[in-house]
Amino acid sequence: MKIAVLDGYTLNPGDLSWEGLETLGECTVYDRTPLTDEEEIQRRIGDARIVLTNKTPISRETLNACKEVRYIGVLATGYNVVDVQAAKERGIVVTNIPTYGTDAVAQFAIGLLLEICHHIGHHNQAVQEGRWAKNADWCFWDYPLIELAGKTMGIIGYGRIGQATGRIAQALGMKVVAYDKYHGVQETETFSYADLDQLLQISDVIALHCPLFEDTKGIINRESIRKMKDGVIILNNSRGPLIVEEDLREALLSGKVAAAGLDVVSTEPIREDNPLLGLDNCMITPHISWAPKESRERLMGIAVENVKAYLKNEPRNVVN
């Protein structure tokens, strides 16, 4: 049985092992596959029965061309890179990995927030460059410093990651309000649910932890920003297209939004003409919330177990 991994490098740049998959069949791992070269994608899949992909798209045309495929494992939570309807029509099982990075992504969201509040990296650089040694006073700061205790964090999407972020925010002394279709967490003195408009109006910090669907695409836009507090902070390490980037740029320049911390953008890798580049109050990191080694080890383990479960005719984490 042949197994093809189309883009394995980001999961395993050399510090993990593919041994778990290699014991299950003849496994070929490609570091990267050109995302827009459908012929090359089809060539690399070839007559493989099992295909694993992270960001390499698998279209209806590719499935029609690669007739041996019976299983597609997405090496991520989001699975929009696969035409799941076409796969279902052909009887192909598609799975994802929903729980591997909960703590890492929540931790990173708070990390973005803390960096905005304190600009630790900037102030360290200032010290390294000698500015403190030459300073007339015993301390200095170049940006307003923000205390979070007593402020309100609004979380759009209160699933596993949203809840984990909320718990950390509460530990910092923040109140948390959440907007979600499902109200699965009991409300407390420091946590409550709200409708979207209410959340936008009362939150000092807004964190996005919702999936990318048609009704969430562009959920942060000129109109929703207009409803927010002046000086709000926006965090997004979920999906880039949740934000209309031109509208956020306008709000950052005007000061309506005090700062944004982003680990995702609309097109990745980021385009050189992305409107959010070059702004002092917009911090952007290269989609690394998910990437601690511990998190990637869990991802690898779940990916292998998903394949094993499929081979036993007991598929799990099926999305189609």
Description:
This protein is an alpha/beta fold and 320 residues long. It contains eleven helices and twelve strands. Helix 5 crosses helix 7. It has two domains: 2-99 and 293-311, NAD(P)-binding Rossmann-like Domain (Rossmann fold, 3-Layer(aba) Sandwich), CATH 3.40.50.720; 102-284, 3-Layer(aba) Sandwich (Rossmann fold). It has helices at residues 19-22, 38-45, 60-65, 84-89, 102-118, 120-128, 160-171, 196-202, 222-226, 245-254, 293-311, and strands at 2-5, 26-29, 50-53, 71-74, 93-95, 152-156, 175-179, 191-193, 205-208, 232-236, 257-262, 282-284. The strands form two sheets. It has a seven-stranded parallel beta sheet, sandwiched between helices. Strands 2-1-3-4-5 form a five-stranded parallel beta sheet. The two termini are 23 Å apart. It is globular.
Report the CATH C-level class of the largest domain: Alpha Beta
The helicity comes to: 25-40%
**Spatial gap, N to C terminus:** 23 Å
Largest sheet: 7 strands, parallel
As a whole number of angstroms, the C-alpha radius of gyration is 22 Å
Secondary-structure-derived class: alpha/beta
Mean pLDDT: 97
CATH architectural name of the largest domain: 3-Layer(aba) Sandwich
Shape: globular
Spans with pLDDT under 50 lasting ≥5 residues? none
Structural domain count: 2
Quaternary assembly = single chain
The fraction of residues assigned to DSSP E strands is: 15-25%
Count the DSSP helices: 11
SSE sequence, one letter per element: EHEHEHEHEHHEHEEHEHEHEEH
Spatial strand sequence of the major β-sheet: 8-7-6-9-10-11-12
